[in-house]
Amino acid sequence: MAEKNYPTPHINAEPKDFARTVLMPGDPLRAKFIAEHYLANAVLVNNVRGIQGYTGTYKGERVSVMASGMGMPSIGIYSYELFNFFGVENIIRVGTAGAISPDVHVRDIVIAMGACTNSNYASQYKLPGTFAPTASYGLMKTAIDNAEKHGAVYHVGNCLSSDTFYCDDETATMQWARMGVLCIEMEAAALYMNAARCGKHALGLFTVSDHILTGEATTAEERQTTFTTMMEIALDTAIEN
Ligand code: HPA
Prior knowledge:
Elements: E1 21-24, H1 28-38, E2 40-46, E3 53-58, E4 61-66, H2 72-85, E5 90-99, E6 109-117, H3 137-149, E7 154-161, H4 172-178, E8 183-185, H5 188-198, E9 201-211, H6 220-239
Parallel strand pairs: 1-4, 1-5, 5-9, 6-7, 7-8
Antiparallel strand pairs: 2-3, 3-4, 5-8, 6-9
Helix pairs in contact: 2-5, 3-6
The chain binds hypoxanthine.
The site of hypoxanthine has 11 residues, from strand 5, strand 8 and strand 9.
């Protein structure tokens, strides 16, 4: 682990405060909800900029949950610090995504095997080609096994991690859809690249909150049910890795 003084610029904690696996929703209030509803003896370990982080136990195993904020720069910062300075081995993003495949429906779960991106995040690595950000196989396999156990409706494939939620180019979505990309979110590619560069492990799990092409939508109550299934899949995956 890199030498570092604590606190780091964005996390007011020490390595012992985090479990080896951190679940990362985008929204700090989701992190609080997960800690309060799923973790026993949850302790608040970070609250810099309201990015709430908690550590507690799930089925007797230590697990942490901390928000990532929205977008690749934000998850890039938090995952970098957790991997490099806090001894975290696994980060599982638990988020929402907008579907762009006709086969994927609102409330389904997407397990992001790969993350395409329109961001320039990879340019920092000065690679002589294009990097393909992928999930860590071990985490992904465990998540698929757990999705089966929960009887979840799930898809495994590519997502698009986009720098824009509101995109001026109306044709862009269709072009990604033509390449078989299942859904759009805004964080997984940076998380996967940080994990690769640090020799650590990452996975993105999303519940589909809306369908960008068909306009199919869901009620808050239905979203909550799928969210619960996704969380249980993520937590079972966390304690098995
Ligand atoms: N775009 C990007 N991220 C998202 C979306 C979307 O349409 N829906 C949920 N997360």
